[in-house]
Amino acid sequence: MKEDQQSKQIIKKEVPLKKKTVSNVSNKQISDEKENNDVVFLGNGSNNWRLLCKAYSKNEGWMKSTKALQLNASDVLVQVSTQQRNSDGTYCISEAVTTVKGNLHESSTEKGIYFLS
Predict the structure, then answer these.
(1) Strand, coil or helix: what is 89?
(2) Global pTM?
(3) Count of domains in the chain?
(4) Structural domain span for residue 12
């Protein structure tokens, strides 16, 4: 019985996080990162995903974004991301993906912003 109780104990181990090496700030930064570290890129880097919507508040500590990836002539993969700062300064992140029928089109009024139809 004692052995069963010990095997059910959860051991918490704090692991230090390494510096993030990839971000989606700019194509130049991704180009610099390809040259300066061991990050491997497949495809054409950050140009596959299209931003549909993004909103955030640094003061309130939250961010929400919706991105889409055209899979073929009629299917789009949609990703929704939510980030929320906790009271201790850490962040909770959630992601959801789904496939929808449609096509991506660039907005005629806002360059770099896309919509799904």
Answers:
(1) coil
(2) 0.60
(3) 1
(4) 2-116
